Amino acid sequence: MRKKIEMSILVRHLRFLVVFSLFAALAAPAFAQQTDMDPLAVRLAGKLKTGPTRVIVAGFLDSRDLRSPLGVQLASEFADALHRASPGLEFVSREEFNRVRREGLWTEDDAREFSVLRSLALELDARLLITGWYERRKESLQLTVQAFDFRKDRRVAEVSVTLPLTEERARLDEQPFGLRRCEKDPTPPKLSTEVPTAVFQPGKDGVGVPECVRCPGPTFTLEARAAKYVGRVVLKIIVTPEGRTANIRVEKGAKYGLTEAAVDAVKRWRFKPALLNGKPVPVETMIEVTFRLR
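Predicted structure:
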């Protein structure tokens, strides 16, 4: 039950994934001025015990699980403090994160899903995810920060602190949240979400076979992991001319929530579409998703 609660908290905070560019922090001298975040960062660093590793920092949320300019600022301040407390940590920059995300044809909304984030972390060789949330009080902020270890597949640290509610923090908390223009994906492509009326069979009558270009594995649920379950899910899908999946149907499921995990992962698969006379066409095919503990 405890693991279920921890995973629920993590997924809740992944709805607002913002990776910060920390070049300034990485270049900061050892004698950089400390802030009220430093004691909290020292406590978290003392609990990590991971050695040199890469870290993804997510924007902090308010008590309503909403993103805010203050959450962005608090996360940035904490990341700076954590680097001072543990210089061996290497922070993934926003530019690097978004580059890998776009190469995988994932949108910003996709990257808030845990299965996609896990795949991105693997591509980026990142082990830790830092998330947090705050509660505003009359004259203070109650801030809680968590660290999730992808290798151990669980939360490894949680620390809290009471911060003063300065005028600047109060002002940021009252501002509406909005992405800056440079944070938006440039001219996202228009993709069809409808199931094509004419669907071909791959490998027949001159129709080519779709090629998987980005097909990350699904998340192994905590229940299945605890039961050491091994199984497979068989799905019938349509690969659209845009190389996306559509009309996913379950031919053979699995227990412990693995059917849902497989479908969720396959929704985000990306293909080089099948061709007919040099033009991309929709094809229907069967795929098998295997779950096996390593």
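Summary: Residues 193 and 246 are 8 Å apart (CA to CA).
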